[in-house]
Specification:
Layout: E1 4-10, H1 16-29, E2 34-38, H2 45-49, E3 58-61, E4 64-68, H3 71-77, H4 79-89, H5 100-104, H6 109-123, E5 129-133, H7 137-157, H8 160-167, H9 169-172, H10 183-203, E6 209-215, H11 219-234, E7 239-247, H12 257-273, E8 278-283, H13 292-303, E9 318-323, E10 326-332, E11 341-346, E12 349-354, E13 357-362, E14 372-378, E15 381-386
Parallel strand pairs: 1-5, 1-6, 2-4, 2-5, 6-7, 7-8
Antiparallel strand pairs: 3-4, 9-10, 10-15, 11-12, 12-13, 14-15
This protein binds adenosine-5'-triphosphate and magnesium ion (MG).
The site of adenosine-5'-triphosphate (ATP) has 18 residues, from α1 and β7.
Length: 387
């Protein structure tokens, strides 16, 4: 097996950090060099291990390393790639030079810098496995759609001024006069762009990367998990499993009877809704899973005989199919809402928009001059007929 990247995401507080850390402990124990990296700006990986962790990979145990990405640190490490952003943005007269701390607050910047580490570790083949403890769903979806959004802007709306405007809209209003950047800046923007494209291809390569959704058995968490699943599939990220964490078992006594029955209902819904992916069920533990020993215990409860490095589902999420002389694009998108759906062909690209989310698919040649004439959801699959 080549290098693997496992990314754990989910609503706030559901147990992403604990499960990511516990997974990393178990992989390291099996002899694979493992890095668990937190990309949540509100780091708590150190709390899970009960040890302070810095912005560089820190050795925690044999084969096990942990890192809490700091945006300031990333800016220093990846300055050459990132400076294009800024030079372009701040080539305006009358603006004071800005500090790394201020740069760190620019929208899009923290996402970009975290992703740059991922590319570096992947391409330098530093680790057999990289486990990502990511920010709560909303934030990490932003992170995962970032390379795509950037590709779109680079392709369509270069020159720089407008591309930059998207990334720093809040600041844009105060900036009056952005000039087209010089060659060096242009090159560093290109490098960044190229890196982000590579990151996207790494994160969407189902042989390498796997996205795992963590949830608790409650209604809000279930809704958010379904939403996240839809968007991840829309963006082509390979989701292979759902982790239902903090399940009350029978030993929790009479007081939790009502809770157990509510959780039972939700778990039933999870079983029905996520039948294509593997579902891991994790009990509420008697004590907080803190420290390597408890995290290892937790991982054997979670995975029992399964290998966390396995790929638990290999379904393709987009297919181009010709049937009875008709052309179809089929996209797996369970839980998507048809109300907010728009589909159209724009110059050989199929644009699929669901609410605020937009995805662009480059159509194969035989499809490129065809337009969608019908779109319907059939068993969680968006079926688009093209003519
Ligand atoms: N199965 C479990 N049994 C008992 N406690 C748990 C379990 N899983 C997680 N916890 C505890 O729940 C709390 C939240 O877990 P954790 O920090 O892993 O969640 P998170 O999703 O990473 O949160 P955040 O969104 O804040 O990053 C922690 O105190 C953790 O120790
Ligand atoms: Mg966390």
């Amino acid at each position: 097996m080549g290098q693997r990247i496992l990314l754990y995401t989910g609503k706030g507080g559901v147990g992403k950090t604990s499960i990511a850390a516990s997974t990393a402990c178990s992989i390291a124990k099996s002899g694979k060099k493992t890095l668990v990296i937190s990309t949540d700006p509100a780091h708590s990986l150190g709390d899970a291990f009960g040890i302070e962790i810095g912005p560089k990979p820190k050795k925690m145990a044999e084969n096990l390393y942990a890192q809490e990405v700091s945006v300031n640190e990333a800016i220093n490490t990846h300055w050459n790639e990132l400076k294009g952003y800024l030079t372009g943005l701040f080539q305006t007269e009358g603006l004071d030079p800005i500090s790394a701390e201020e740069i760190a607050t620019l929208p899009g910047f923290d996402e970009a810098s975290q992703l740059l580490y991922l590319r570096q570790y992947y391409e330098e083949k530093d680790f057999d496995a990289i486990v990502i403890d990511s920010a709560p769903t909303g934030e990490s979806l932003k992170l995962l759609s970032f390379p795509e959004a950037m590709t779109w802007y680079m392709d369509k709306i270069f020159p720089m001024g407008r591309f930059a405007a998207k990334l720093v809209r809040p600041m844009w209003n105060t900036v009056s006069n952005i000039t087209i950047p010089d060659d060096e800046v242009f090159k560093s923007v290109e490098t960044l762009y190229e890196y982000l494209r590579r990151i996207r291809s790494i994160l969407t390569d189902p042989k390498v990367s796997t996205i795992r959704l963590v949830m608790n058995p409650d209604k809000m968490s279930l809704s958010e998990t379904k939403r996240a699943f839809t968007y991840l599939l829309l963006y082509g990220y390979p989701v292979d499993s759902v982790f239902v964490n903090k399940i009350y078992d029978d030993s929790t006594g009479a007081f939790f009877k009502g809770w157990r029955s509510n959780q039972g209902e939700i778990i039933k819904d999870v079983n029905d809704s996520f039948s294509d992916v593997k579902i891991f069920k994790v009990p509420m533990l008697k004590e907080e899973p803190i420290g390597i020993e408890r995290l290892e215990e937790m991982s054997s409860l979670i995975y029992s005989d399964s290998d966390p490095l396995d790929i638990f589902s290999r379904e393709k999420n987009i297919q181009f199919v010709k049937e009875h002389g008709k052309y179809f694009v089929r996209l797996k998108l369970p839980f998507a809402d048809k109300k907010n759906l728009e589909v159209f062909n724009k110059g050989g690209e199929l644009i699929i928009q669901i609410g605020n989310w937009k995805r662009v698919f480059y159509l194969p040649t035989v499809y490129s001059d065809k337009n969608p004439i019908k779109a319907e959801f059939i068993n969680g699959v968006l079926d688009i007929e093209m003519k």
